[in-house]
Structures
1.
Amino acid sequence: MYILTIIGMVVAIVVVAIILLALIAPKKYHVERSMIIKRPVKEIYKYLRFIKNQDEWSPWKKRDPEMKQTYIGTDGEVGFISKWDSNHKQVGSGEQEIKFLVSPTRIDSELRFFKPWKSKSNGFFILTEINPEKTEVTWGFEGTHKIPANVFGLFFNMDKAVGKDFEEGLSELKRILEN
């Protein structure tokens, strides 16, 4: 009987700890990086609105150039979906759908990840004309962690992990568009 009481207390403490952590853990995340590219805003927008062009500069495509990809709809238009499936742990599987286009300043998409864990994020490109030949490109994503999955945010820095990939991708995008 004594052992059952101790086990019950331990279980209760663990449950209370998880509840407390879920209450204090961040529920929202936002990661973005920006880079100046020496190209007119309209040219960059025309290039970025086509998801298939991401194969040329995406850090995740570089990690698994053999990932399986399928497409639904017309690329560059709202509703287009690009699906990917990879065995590489940093690539996983999921899909990206174009949700909103504002020429030549904004591209919004929904990212639905299935593997290595299930989640949904809102991705975006914001294009800001610096001058007729120079554009600031901001690439990012944001979303909400559901409770109790938000506890993960206490131990994993999304900005640090994904921000590095965004920097790598933007550098490659800059190289391609400026050449």
Note: The mean pLDDT is 91.
2.
Amino acid sequence: MEVTGEAPAVHGYSMPAEWEPHSQTWMGWPERPDNWRDNALHAQLVFTKVATAISKFEPVTVCASSAQWENARSQLPEHVRVLEMSMNDSWFRDIGPTFVVRKNGSNHGNLEQHIAGIDWNFNGWGGVDDGCYQDWSLDLLVARKIIGMEKLPRFPHFMILEGGSIHVDGDGTCLTTEECLLNKNRNPNLTKEQIEDQLKAYLGVQKVIWLPYGLYGDDDTNGHIDNMCCFVRPGVVLLSWTDDEKDPQFKRSMEALSILSNTRDANGRRLEIIKLHVPGPLYMTDEEAAGVVQDCNAKPRLPGTRLAASYVNFYIANGGIITPQFGDQKWDDEAVRVLSQAFPNHEVRNTSVQFINIYKLHMQDM
């Protein structure tokens, strides 16, 4: 069912926090050789490891193209569902739907379903001139397909927005960055106030906290919040951090710290800030760059490029934390320690995701 003319909040829906119960996790399967080196061989091994780790806590569905379905099926555990779906790339957190839920007892609107999906507009993270690749026509259909398979109400939205650019506490507060949402390559005809109004109406939040920038080097997404800062629970956030004052990330982290320290959430709480040190810095090697097909259909992957490596881009499953590891032993171990303390009731599992940000889409089951 397509719902037009009315926002989800009108029907009592709101976006839940990532730590609330899921019925399953949706993932895409990587393959494009102009983004993933060596025909995505290494990425597929990592995606398999991530899907397997998540499946210890909840069901997982992986979507693969017709050309890759058999390959994905052969690599993934049998209990992980593999569906055929066309896509331009595998970033499901960004191109998939934002699931919203209606709390028990809510009787707003005239929709009976407990879960619905928001189908945002998408332009390849910046359009023809600034985006990651030239053709995103298949990505535009992913959210609609998933919502249709789940037989949920669909709220289409004209605004260009990726799921990784927003993060909520499930209690009325949303985190985002000006670097991304106010970028001229997203919604140049909308003001900050207008974008904020849309976030409130569609996510069911009352307060939007704007950080100036995302993680240094996260040029592909123009500074998504999911690499920079996230909620641990209402009133508590994790912030990407570095102690190195010469690192360009230091200024970004300091500016974010200042804003977060002087901001209250939707319920008037002062925020507790937990610092999560970034690894590295890490850079793309000559070997890694040589493994990518540089064919002008996607953004060039050049040797020496600083990689947007962050432990904040972990995933919360039902009772589990899936955290990346980057081969920087000191900060890899520190990340596991910090996350274990931040989530004492979750099992923290590392995935040795070196130099790859894995974006997931989760479906909530309240």
Note: Residues 353-366 have pLDDT under 50 and may be disordered.
3.
Amino acid sequence: MQHSISVRDLTLNFGAVSVLKTLNLDVAEGEFVVLLGPSGCGKSTLLNCLAGLLDITDGQIWIKGRNVTWAEPSERGIGMVFQSYALYPQMTVRGNLSFGLKNARMPKDEIDRRVARAAEILQIGPLLDRKPAALSGGQRQRVAIGRALVRDVDVFLFDEPLSNLDAKLRSELRVEIKRLHARLGNTMVYVTHDQIEALTLADRIAVMRGGIIQQLDAPQTIYNKPANLFVAGFIGSPSMNFLHGAVTDQGRAFAVAGAKLDLSGYDGGSPVAMDKAILGLRPEHITIAADPEPGQSIPATVEIDEPMGADSLVWLTTGGAQLSVRVPVERRLAPGTQVHLRVDITKASLFDAQTEQRI
């Protein structure tokens, strides 16, 4: 497989602080990779290293088979879209789109062709003679994307481009960016802290923490089989439920809240017995029942019933832990109700409590 971007043992230190730690990343030709993580995890820093806006401490960066570790940003064959629109207020949309091309002394007819193509793809043709002050936030971001698009590069870098927009506009532009990638087929690396953006846009997601990629995988794999406790807790809204207990009976059962859950259907293989383990369950992989089912359910108490529109989120306590369960919106449960939680162990994740790695 040909790699559009390859990062090898990349390290970045700010003084005594290590921001990126011996990081490796390969992005395939035409792939959409999302860098996801909490604030301060190093995702924007990594993007700025790819763009050449930060000098790295050690390692190498390759783009389209060229070692660009010390190349200037303009020599890397990339187009970058920032969180801030950074448009020239005194110029029209047409002027903003063509400014960089004019500076590069490109022929006028080629500039006009590229501007017209970008305007058509992004549906901003009617806005070409307006100035940024006369545009909405979504329109300004389209122009910012268009400014990268006219450069006709192979690799696009997006640094949280939708974070300044309201929820409705974010949703609309998310679809536009996905459509743009499907139409162009360019390699795209996209930074966000919004997991919905990551799950809907990405071919693969790199979940980062403390300057290290914790897991790099397809969205469904990240969601269903998180590599460790951090990834499991970060992905999902609400996040994965965690039950602290022990693996008993030679690895055949998980003991929690006075009950034993049968682990024979666990998708991670046959775990060994351990005194401290954590069982992770998504809210949609638990059902609420009135009666117990040996080996499949645990007792719980309803705390809050929270209608969410399409369904309800029920919060419960069991064995000192708080859990959330998705239920049909028409099913209402009063606080204090004693119930039993039936678990789909085939969808569960089991973690070693010491290493926090998935078993």
Note: The chain has two domains: 3-233, 240-352.
